[in-house]
Amino acid sequence: MDKYVSWMSALRLLSGSVEIAAALIMLKLNQVDKALAVNSGLALVGPTILILTTAVGLTGMAEQLSWGKLGWIGCGVAILLFGILKK
Fold first, then answer.
1. Which has the closest alpha carbon to 84: 35, 46, 41?
2. What letter would DSSP give residue 62?
3. What gap in Å lies between CA 73 and CA 56, rounded to an integer?
4. What is the model's pTM?
5. End-to-end CA distance of the chain
6. Which of 33, 54, 65, 73 has the most beta carbons within 10 angstroms of its beta carbon?
7. Which residue windows are transmembrane per the record (predicted)?
């Protein structure tokens, strides 16, 4: 198995585990204000995992892609993050 694919899937499993743990914490707290605070904390997890997973994937493909294509991919990720994080 490719080491880059292993790392990417491990990051996604970690992200999913954090999401499930947060949902269980929200159920245990049983208060809207505290559940909203937990949910707000998750706002950091998603984009962070996205950036890390993309970075690992691009590292694995770096030899196959030209600098121009890597630049376009970087622009796409930046626009995606801008759309997610803009309030």
1. 46
2. T
3. 13
4. 0.72
5. 40
6. 54
7. 41-61, 67-85
